[in-house]
Amino acid sequence: MVAPPHALPIPRITLETTIPAIEPPAKFRSSIPIISSTRPIANTFLVLSPEAKEYLYMMFGVMSYFVIAQAVNTTLVVGVFRSGGDTRFGLILDVSTMWGFSILLGAVAAFFLHASVPVVYILLMSDELVKLPLTLKRYRSYKWLKDVTRNNLEI
C-alpha cells in the first residue's frame, strides 16, 4: 500500500546545495563566431543592396554580443524565477525595460534625434543589458524562491 502524499517525508534541502552559481559570460563567447558564420549564408540566399548588406552585417555583430545577455536573462527569468514561483518579477522587468527604456529611447532616437539605423538598433536591443544587473541581483537575493508545493492535500 502506498502512503498518501501528505504522509510522505519531506526531504530537507539547503539553498547552497540546490542553486548553482552562474557561470561567467565567457561560456557564451561561442555566439560571436556562430552568428558571424551566417554571413556567407546571407550572401548566398539574400539579394540585398550594398547598404542593406552593411546594415545586416552590423546587426549580426550587435546581436552576437547582445545574445549573451539575452541568454542569461531568459534562463533566469523564464527558467529559474518562474520555476521558483516568482512570475511577477519577470513580467514587471520585461514590460518596464522594454516599454520604459528600449522602445522609448529607440523612438526618441529615430523620430526626434534622427539617429542612424545602427544607433536605433542598438538602443532597441539595449533592454537586455539593462535587465542583466537587475536579474542577477534578484537571482543572488533568493527572493524568487517560493514554496510551490501543496502542503494541505485532501484526498
How would you describe this protein?
- The protein is an all-alpha fold.
- The protein is 65% helix and 0% strand.
- It is built from seven helices and no strands.
- The relative contact order is 0.14.
- Residues 13-19 have low confidence and may be disordered.
Short account of what is shown:
Helices cover 65% and strands 0% of the residues. By secondary structure, the protein is mainly α.
Overall geometric form: elongated
In percent terms, what proportion of residues is strand?
under 5%
Give the distance, in angstroms, between the N- and C-terminal Cα atoms: 15 Å
Report mean pLDDT, rounded to a whole number: 80
- Specify Rg, calculated over alpha carbons: 22 Å
User: What is the number of E strands?
Assistant: 0
Assign a percent range to the helix content.
55-70%
Indicate the low-confidence ranges by residue numbers.
13-19
The helix/strand series, from N terminus to C terminus, equals HHHHHHH
Structural class by helix and strand composition: mainly alpha
Number of helical elements: 7
Largest sheet: none
Oligomer: single chain
List the helices and strands and how they pair.
Blueprint: H1 15-18, H2 31-36, H3 39-45, H4 50-83, H5 88-112, H6 117-125, H7 127-141
Helix pairs in contact: 4-6, 4-7, 5-6, 5-7
Keywords:
65% helix, mainly alpha
